[in-house]
Design brief:
This protein has helices at 5-8, 14-22, 30-54, 58-104, 106-118, 124-135, 138-148, 159-175, 188-214, 218-247. It is an all-alpha fold.
Length: 250
């Protein structure tokens, strides 16, 4: 998405910039929602495809789909929570180490700040003023070291929010391909084809949503996500069909 100068000027006026930068950083839950949605749809439709390929009844496909939906959704949410928590603990550990280093060898830590900003083009008296200003407050000093030396962002992480977002996106999107199997009066082929269309629409929709958020080409993003989900479902179908042929599953 492109903007004209007239569109950008209001939000770049001094008062607007000051107000925007004074607000606390917002937690971006969209990556967790996209991850949960795609994985949920892949999980349940893979079960449906495998069951259909193996010749199982629609009831078996529904039971397996619901069981996998709940178990995998919980597992993925816990995994995302643990990953976010581990990242936060790592940031806290590095921050504590930097505070300790500042207490023990402040001149060495100042030299790190000096070299970091010299590499950015600062020099002479201006460089020394920057070093003095940043190292005058230990919190700002450590925050700068986290970002510049360790490439860590000390704010914006919420493990619980990440886990809940992943779980609900997984459950809501993942339940969609199972809807035809919850309807009575449809034969197995019709249920599978309806599930296939719904899953395809979910994959394509998630890809388009991702493109709107991150300003990427909509159709390309939609088809890319559809291709990834279709490949996973295809593998599940082939596996189920081969298992049926090799082991005589009924």
């Amino acid at each position: 998405m492109s903007y004209d100068r007239e569109d950008l000027e209001p939000e770049h006026r001094p008062e607007a910039v000051k107000q925007r930068l004074s607000q606390p950083p917002q937690v971006n839950s969209m990556p967790d929602a996209i991850l949960g949605g795609i994985d949920g749809c892949v999980t349940t439709f893979a079960v449906v495809s495998g069951a259909f390929g193996a010749g199982f009844s629609p009831t078996v496909a529904l039971v397996l789909g619901v069981a996998n939906l709940l178990a995998d959704g919980f597992s993925m949410a816990v995994s995302n929570y643990e990953a976010s928590q581990a990242q936060q603990e790592h940031i806290d550990s590095v921050a504590r180490r930097e505070y300790h280093h500042i207490q023990l060898i402040p001149e060495g830590e100042r030299e790190e700040i000096r070299q970091i900003f010299r590499a950015k083009g600062f020099d002479g008296e201006l460089l020394e003023r920057v070093v003095e200003t940043l190292t005058d407050d230990h919190d700002i000093w450590v925050d700068t070291m986290l970002k510049e030396e360790h490439s860590l962002q000390p704010v914006g992480l919420s493990p619980l929010r990440a886990a809940l977002t992943t779980f609900f996106a997984f459950i809501i999107v993942g339940a969609m391909p199972l809807l035809p199997y919850a309807l009575s009066g449809l034969d197995a082929v019709t249920q599978f084809l309806a599930s296939l269309l719904i899953a395809g629409a979910m994959f394509f929709g998630i890809g388009m949503l991702k493109s709107l958020v991150y300003h990427r080409p909509m159709l390309r993003s939609g088809f890319r996500t559809l291709l990834i989900g279709g490949a996973a479902a295809g593998l599940a179908f082939i596996s189920g069909h081969l298992a049926h042929a090799l082991f005589g599953l009924n």
